[in-house]
Amino acid sequence: MKMVIATGSATAVALLTIGLTAPMAQRGATSPPTQGAPVPPARGTPAQPARGTPAAPARGTPAASAYNGPRTPDRKPDLNGIWQVLGTAHWNLEPHSAIEGVPAGMGVVEGEIPYLPAALAKRNENFQNRMTADPLRKCYMPGVPRATYLPFPFEITQTPQHIGFAYEFAHATRTIFLDGTPHLDDLDFWMGDGRGKWEGDTLVVDTVSLGDQTWLDQAGNFHGSDLHVVERFTPVDASHINYEVTLEDPKVYSRPWKMNMIIYRRLEKNLELLEYECTEHLYLKLFKERAGKQ
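The chain above was modelled as a monomer; its predicted structure follows.
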């Protein structure tokens, strides 16, 4: 039996409390070396580092972490706080020109989204109907990874056993378990079933059970019920996180694909998550539309 669960309005702290009680480079011509410039080694000769320059670690050897921000008592990067993506991924993950109500964007996808032919036709249909068909316009949960790059802030609450995400949009929440427990079976969550681990200073979150009711952006990019998402949160310093996402769904895409963006820490004084009551706004809009037709 499949059980459908929509995430409610619990805060990140409450969510964690509940969790604790349950077990292209451009191709061009190369200029000749100028006088005095180092001459490249002959083909087949390994390059030697310049004098005074430390050699790069051998392939397969992990490099030392570049993160120099604050850490938690268990020596993990401290991600506690309010964050937000500043970009246009919410409107369209791929490069796009500006249209009414949509700013132009460079895109966040590595290459292009590798849709299968039938899925590409569906994406194009979604785009044509996006003003009414986007699930977000019906106040559904945004899903993963879309919740991260909505034009709303979100809060991270971190413990050694759990990572809690609380989103300003529609009170959406996630609890990422770090205790090594496996994914739950035969469930269908709007925000997925997330399991996490630390790889050095990178938080890796593996999410399944996402269903097929959410989109990836406002342009109609979508996924199916077999979507598997792996997010990598790699903090650069106290205020910036490199966010890399790999998506795999063999019924929709011909291969796994990636997107990349930066998450910024919000630093305003006395900042806190406010409320965006989507259902209330939708009700008022529908009420006014119906009143105008009478």
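DSSP finds five helices and eleven strands in the chain.
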